[in-house]
Specification:
This protein has 12 helices and 12 strands. By secondary structure, it is an alpha/beta fold. The chain has a domain of about 40 residues. The strands form 2 sheets. The chain has a 10-stranded mixed beta sheet with strand order 1-2-3-4-7-8-9-10-11-12. The protein has a two-stranded antiparallel sheet with strand order 5-6. A hairpin with a 4-residue loop joins strand 3 and strand 4. The longest helix is centred in the middle third of the chain and has 16 residues. It is elongated. The chain starts with about 50 loop residues before the first helix and ends in a 9-residue tail after the last helix. The N terminus and C terminus are likely disordered. The protein binds iron/sulfur cluster. The site of iron/sulfur cluster (SF4) has 12 residues, from helix 4. Iron/sulfur cluster binds next to helix 4.
Length: about 400
């Protein structure tokens, strides 16, 4: 009987294993150092909006006018958003230009404007007196309008996914440079420049360029002026002002003592120190637990629910176990004190910095909710005009250069 042909040995088929895809910031981006001190010390010229009501009265008196002129000027500025002396008709014509020259130096010049969402989202790149650039984004919704403002030129926090962070910190903005972003937005809403007819500004969020807590004193002055009643401020409700931070824990704790019930938004982006220290480098100084403790302390002091911002990045921080860990850490500090806002990252094609896939996003949100965490996926308005902070200014560069209007 002939022998059967030898049976070819076939390697057993590999057993399907469940691989968890994982990318790290360091896979693509070399870390850059944190920069706590600005490169430049130069200050913007002092402006009326930098001053307290008492200082405004003293300033007009020094210029040879009655103190009540300060209140008239404040009404023009905070109620009518008018810095053109031609509109100050209740002030003697001969006095107007001198007051304007001394107290209202032009601080912001629009160099570029981009619109999206049928003109209801407007992003403006501003050139400051020393040619550095910042930006603000105005978003009008059917029932409200929100302005996202910058508090620094550049940023020293070195987050690898952020264009601003790659440029480092040029300098802090003055209070008036920040308030001018607000006044100009109020003016464009009041005059009906934004489609939908004249309206008012309802919300201000410190989520543009910079880390607000790194320019703390100035940001506090701005918040107080935003919330002061018209005509000494813009009359916004402190509750409608959101101050964001990547987690400067000591400043967060200080904010809790200010008696200003603003909304605090903590950009967490990862619940574990291992990843967060790469993703948000300030985490090497203030750990996840430290910043969550500081966030909880803010809730205890203010009664204001803290927002946790979480940019969902494909295969980097969007794993189900991270949602569970985040929920665990939040629940360990009590219930009902926090709200999580996952934000789909603006996709950067061909890069590791890509928005999570929708099934991963759904799973992440479902796990948070299943653990009792209030969760709302945040609107990504303006993503088609580089709505992520810093991208527009990065194109224009923050370094001094010739005008490009
Ligand atoms: S994400 Fe915010 S804190 Fe981080 S580098 Fe950018 S502007 Fe700074």
């Amino acid at each position: 009987m002939p022998k059967p042909p030898p049976v070819e040995e076939v390697a057993p088929a590999p057993r399907p294993t469940k691989t968890v895809l994982s990318v790290r910031p360091s896979d693509e981006t070399a870390p850059i150092p944190l920069q706590m001190a600005p490169r430049r010390r130069g200050k913007a010229p002092t402006h009326f909006a930098d001053l307290t009501p008492e200082e405004r009265a003293a300033a007009v008196t020094e210029l040879g006018h009655k103190p009540f002129r300060a209140k008239q000027l404040a009404t023009h500025y905070f109620a009518h958003y008018a810095t053109d002396p031609a509109h100050w008709t209740d002030i003697p014509a001969a006095a107007r230009q001198g007051l304007a020259d001394a107290l209202f130096p032009p601080l912001l010049h629009a160099t570029r404007t981009l619109t999206a969402d049928q003109g209801t989202t407007v992003k403006t790149l501003w050139r400051l007196h020393d040619n550095v650039r910042v930006e603000s984004v105005l978003m009008r919704y059917p029932s409200r309008s929100t302005l996202c403002i910058s508090s620094q030129a550049g940023c020293g926090m070195a987050c690898p996914f952020c264009a601003t962070g790659q440029l480092g910190l040029t300098r802090n903005l003055s209070a008036a440079e920040i308030l001018e972003q607000v006044r100009l937005a109020c003016a464009s809403l009041a005059t009906g420049e934004i489609p939908g007819g004249p309206t008012r500004l309802n919300n201000v969020v410190f989520m543009g360029m910079g880390e607000p807590m790194a320019n703390y004193q100035v940001v506090m002055k701005v918040v107080r002026t935003l919330a002061a009643e018209v005509p000494q401020g813009f009359g916004l409700s402190a509750r409608n002002i959101t101050v964001s931070t990547v987690g400067l824990a000591p400043a967060m704790r200080k904010l809790a003592t200010e008696g200003l019930p603003v909304t605090l938004a903590l950009s967490l982006h990862a619940p574990d120190d291992d990843l967060r220290s790469e993703l948000v480098p300030i985490n090497t100084r203030f750990s996840v637990d430290e910043v969550l403790d500081a966030a909880r302390a803010y809730f205890d002091a203010s009664g204001r629910r803290v927002s946790i911002e979480y940019a969902l990045i494909k295969d980097m921080n969007d794993h189900g176990w991270r949602a569970d860990l985040l929920a665990k850490k939040l629940n360990a500090r009590g219930r009902g004190w926090v709200h999580v806002n996952p934000i789909p990252l603006n996709p950067t094609p061909g890069s590791i910095w890509t928005a999570s896939e929708s099934h991963a996003e759904r799973e992440f949100v479902a796990r948070l909710r299943a653990n009792g965490i209030a969760t709302t996926v945040r609107d990504t308005r303006g993503s088609d005009i580089d709505g992520a902070c810093g991208q527009l200014a990065a194109e224009g560069d923050l370094a001094p250069k010739e005008e490009d209007e």
